[in-house]
Amino acid sequence: VTYGPAPDPADRDAIARLEVAARRPVVWPYFLAGAVGLALAAAALAGLGTGGTAGAGQTMRLVLLVAGAALLLAAVFPLRRARRENRARDRLRAALSPAVTERRPFTDTELEVARVALADAALPTRARRAELERACLAAARRIVDDGAASPDELQMLEQFEAALDLDREFCDAARADAFRGVYMRVVADRELTEEEERALAALQAALRVADDVIAGELDVVHRLAELRRIRAGALPVVEPGIPLREGESCHFAAPARLLKERNLRRFQRDRQAYRVRGLVVDREGTLLITDQRLLLVHAGSTSVRIDRILDVEVDIDRSLLRIVRDGVKTPMLITTPDAVRAGAVLAAVAGV
Length: 352
Description:
Elements: E1 2-3, H1 9-12, H2 28-49, H3 56-102, H4 108-118, H5 125-143, H6 151-162, H7 168-187, H8 194-207, H9 215-231, E2 250-269, E3 272-290, E4 293-297, E5 301-305, E6 309-315, E7 320-325, E8 332-335, H10 339-350
Parallel strand pairs: 1-6
Antiparallel strand pairs: 2-3, 2-8, 3-4, 4-5, 6-7, 7-8
Helix pairs in contact: 2-3, 3-4, 3-5, 5-6, 5-7, 7-8, 9-10
């Protein structure tokens, strides 16, 4: 059995990942206001310095001088506040960075330095939370780079919550995000070995990620594990819903459609005839895969003996089975919601 190409792993890394916005204070409007104020003040002072006569012109120069001075003062205080906030952010980052980078617990000294930085009045609540969240998320992702998490590495995550008072809900979200990062690397090839399955289970337990938080990921893991067992010959036995031959066992049952390639339309351009071909539904019903045959039950039935199946190709994107049969030039095309499982069962039964 062959499968269509998997998505680029880089694309998978962008799926369902947690992000913390890196926002520093916006200062360019204040620089602009300061520059305008300085220009107005300079123009006004230059006019006053010429010794011009009193009157409307002199009054206008005084107005410009006052306006320029006001803009300069209005710009200075926000710029000073932003500068202090950026310095406070840098001190907090410097306190948190060594342990995160080295994937180890914070020392008592580092925790004390971090608490002092967090208590800095120049650091607003939003900035304090953002810096802690960013560091916690970076730590969670870094400690699972090798697909596992040691007790020391997990202790560092605990310190973000217990010693640095980071919101528990975010800590849990960071743990789940770290698990998803490893999960996406593991399943990128749509294969799951027993070792990988055990490693994911161990990582979930170590990170204390609840099943309901990663229900979608666990469903994929269970499905891939089932596919591995099917390919190894452990075929499931299901209820077909219709009578079969005596001694015949059913291993797959699901809704399906038999597709045929047809001419969809014809047209002519520049004296040249063209035709557009595509797939249309020819039959619709229930697909059964047994130990003896592939059977599509519709108003009637379409059947193919297992020993006539030479190859099975699965188009994952279109949930399509392309089945090559002995003595038939055109492949059989069947679409079914769980095409991957159907393809694995059919390939295992047919031995292809």
